[in-house]
Specification:
By secondary structure, the chain is of the alpha+beta class. It is built from 3 helices and 5 strands; from the N terminus they run ββαβααββ. It is globular, with a radius of gyration of 12 Å.
């Protein structure tokens, strides 16, 4: 099970084990990461699972496709390493993945 590290704006860090094949949003919801809301249930139709991928992990998580990029435009303070958690699929290569959480989703 890959270990995922979530870092809040205040520096609070939570490490959780993630099931390969699940998505980052579901991992956050299952582990009480309150900064991730996931209001659309993972259908890439809101932006309430917005998060920031640590720069050194971007190559492994990939870049957003066109639909995700459009949704990210609705997120607060998107930047070059923004992703929607529902679109990041966990696999064994993501063991140690570092996610920075936003101040707010809306």
């Amino acid at each position: 099970m890959p270990l995922i590290k979530f870092i809040a704006v205040d520096g609070d860090t939570r490490e959780v084990n993630a099931e390969s094949g699940s998505n980052l949003m579901q991992v956050a919801l299952d582990n009480g990461i309150d900064e991730i809301l996931g209001e659309c249930g993972g259908s890439c139709s809101c932006a309430t699972c917005h998060c920031y991928i640590a720069d050194d992990w971007l190559a492994k998580t990939g870049m957003p496709d066109d639909i995700e990029q459009e949704m990210l435009e609705c997120a607060l303070e998107p930047n070059a390493n923004s992703r929607l958690g529902c679109q990041v699929i966990i696999n064994d290569e993501l063991d140690g993945l570092v996610i920075h959480l936003p101040k707010a989703q809306y």
